Amino acid sequence: MNCAERTSPVYPRLSLRLGEQGRTLLLVELDERGRVANVSVKTSSGFTRLDEAAVSAVKGWRCTPAIRNGLAVRSVATQPFNFALTGR
Amino acid sequence: MAKRIKTSAAVVVLAILPGVGVYAQAVEELSEITVSGAQEDATANATDSSLGARSPEKSTLASKRPITSDSTHLLEDIPGVSLYGAGGISSLPVIHGLADDRLRVQVDGMDLMPACPNHMNSALSYIDPTKVASVTVFAGVTPVSVGGDSIGGTTQVKSAPPEFARAGETVFVEGQAGTFFRSNGRGLGYNYGGTLAGRWASLSYSESSSQADNYTAGRDFKPVASGRESGPLIAGNVVGSTAYHGATNRDIGLALRYEGHLLEVKVGRQTVGFEGFPNQRMDMTANKNNLINLRYTGLYPWGDLEARVYTQDTRHKMDMGPDRYFYGLGMPMETKGKTKGAQAEGNITVSDRDIVRLGAEYQAYILYDWWPPVGGAMGPNAFWNIDYGQRDKIDAFAEWEARWNPKWVSQLGIRGDAVRTNAGPVQGYDNGLAGTWGSDAAAFNALDRERTDVNWDLTALARYTPSDTHVYEIGYSRKSHSPSLYQRYPWATNAMAALMNNFVGDGNGYVGNVDLKPEVANMVSATGDWHDREKRRWRVSATSYYTYVGDYIDARRCDFGQCSAANVTATTGFLLLQYVNQTARLYGFDLSGQLLLRETHNHGSFTVTGLMNYVRGENQTTGDNLYNIMPLNTKLALVHRLGGWFGVAEFQAVAGKTHVSQVRHEMQTGAYRLLNLRGSYGWKHARLNAGIDNVFNRFYAMPLGGAYVGQGASMSSNGIPWGTPVPGMGRSIHVAVNVSF
């Protein structure tokens, strides 16, 4: 999977305030045109806010579709995000 | 192999996902994206990291915290800050030449009030240094949201925010314990505490205690003599009445959180068995202080809200300590103070550009200050120094902060407060002794003593960040401070009684002035900060300021009541003074900077840090100098970091104090230079601190230490020698150990 613009999620302000951190693993599915067709949480960070921030960021990605036998096909990948706090 | 197994597992997962059809290949694993953010302190005010705020380096705070017993000392490396000397755990902070009541000093958000004619129980004496997690000083133009009823700036000292279990944890448990020893004065102390928390609730407890004997100066500065009648001799280098013991703080905290809401209650009790004051006429023989601090903070779609109610109950006793004449029955003095406060502040995010802060505060303070009878002319009744003193304050403010673009930030604020003070009628020990007590009491009782001041503060600040290597701030403020009860209501012109009313440590006696008006300060300040892009290799920061204070509360020689004609014309000796409104100006600059000299993997980093402060204070009405203005002073330090090691060699140079207040007979002090060495090594669960202060055992007089009246017949005006400033501590070796789990 080749995504030229993997924009990072914005750390939710409430999570910064509440000290929420953790690792979210997303399952990202691209359609034949390279658009993000489906995003789901495979492993939660333990905080819905962080998971949603990750999902929201991935939905805006722009990618190049996978090619098989010369044809663009749907593809899928796992994308880990590590939300880490400093100052604690 | 490991990767293949992972891929296979992912394919299995995919097989059960809906909507997943034909794929180009097995599930690919993309590289991890780290999203980092700085945890916000839930206790922090929104302005903490913004305009005008200064904090000590974290490593400096960590290296000083375990070895001092006085939280005010944690401020001393902040540009623009100096300290008035007082008792061993209760120095008073000074910002750009303005001190004590002229500053707003908050401990965990509470505006704590001293209940003592000598301000022995100052606000920062109520938090043990080991509890201090953050220090923020607004030294220049202070935003109205953190200012109010102060003309010199704001100091915010906070304990650590509550800890909760993190994701994946059901219970969070932590604890820590520490102890320290200082060789000079044999200072000893301990602290311990712990937290037990779940995801939504957190319970914590902490306790700390410290004690010390009298400290010694670098050499003899007075003759060997008894302090008390037939008492043991006090050596020439021993600074009398600097001992303290039984200074214990206990705090329990409970915090509950749910989503973006935090409710926290802290209950604290401080007891002090004894604390000597070398620049006061007597010592603190007991202090009991109870605090309840209930706080709510919540995040909402429109911004955040913080609200607080708190109470402070203080019982305070003074008398002659072991280094002073006891006069048979001593001279007990007692105070009882009660403070109730409430605050609410909303930070409203109006748009991406604009934040508006709205707030209201209320504080009610009641004070009783009485001196039990001891016989003779000091009986048969109690002396009422201030009876049913009241100082009630209500404030409201609005502040607008706009981030116009990445380069420009502006802030405008307005704050109004109404301060009402009053005091009940008083009595002397024996009003029948008209010349000693009765006439003064009658004159005071005949006055209309209630005063209400309506004050307006204005602030305009701008920050310009032309690039990521320099920042400029410029600002103007108008700030006000209403007189304290101890400036308006002490009524006795009897020398002994007036000497007991003194919170500046100059050894003089003070008489109040009911007609005092609020001080109004107009200040302009400019700051430039230059640094490398990472703010790591070098940085230089410079601030200059000019403050014009209308109705500045200074002092004039007392020429009425029992004050003598000689008191007006004297050129040496201790005096009787009365507070009076005059005009003053203060101006100066402070410089700070750092430079990374060398950094290698094997030898760590070597950094030079520097600090220079200059302030000048002039009374425009009389042409005199303002009292207790710190002379030009610098600090230069070499800091070495390597793994868990943090070492500092600190050189301090202070110029002589020659600009002294004539009206108060302030004493000049000489220039001095000191070398201090501090080292600290941290392991995963332990930290060891050790060091030597004043390595060469230099003798020096503290420029802001006041007059030495710490031994002998301190109850009478000139029964003890005049002309000796309180000296600083000679060489002292310290060691501290802290463990955590």
Task: Please render the helix and strand layout as text.
The complex is a heterodimer of chains A (88) and B (741).
Chain A: E1 2-5, H1 13-18, E2 22-30, E3 36-43, H2 48-58, E4 62-64, E5 66-68, E6 71-73, E7 75-86
Antiparallel strand pairs in A: 1-4, 2-3, 2-7, 5-6
Chain B: H1 2-15, E1 28-29, E2 33-38, E3 53-54, H2 58-64, E4 81-84, E5 92-95, E6 98-99, E7 104-107, E8 110-111, E9 132-138, E10 154-159, E11 172-182, E12 187-197, E13 201-212, E14 225-226, E15 233-234, E16 244-258, E17 261-272, E18 274-275, E19 283-300, E20 303-319, E21 333-349, E22 354-371, E23 383-403, E24 408-422, H3 434-445, E25 451-467, E26 470-481, H4 485-488, H5 495-499, E27 509-511, E28 519-531, E29 538-557, H6 565-569, E30 576-600, E31 604-619, E32 633-642, E33 645-654, E34 672-682, E35 686-693, E36 732-740
What do you see in this structure?
The complex is a heterodimer of chains A (88) and B (741). Helices cover 19% and strands 48% of the residues of chain A. With 88 residues, chain A is an alpha+beta fold. Chain A has one domain (11-82): TonB (TolA/TonB C-terminal domain, 2-Layer Sandwich). In chain A, strand 5 and strand 6 (71-73) form a beta hairpin. Chain A starts with a strand and ends with a strand. By secondary structure, chain B is mainly beta. Chain B has two domains: 1-31, no CATH class; 53-329 and 352-740, Maltoporin, Chain A. Chain B contains six helices and 36 strands. In chain B, a hairpin with a 3-residue loop joins strand 12 (187-197) and strand 13 (201-212). The relative contact order of chain B is 0.12. Strand 7 of chain A pairs parallel with strand 1 (28-29) of chain B, so a sheet runs across the interface.
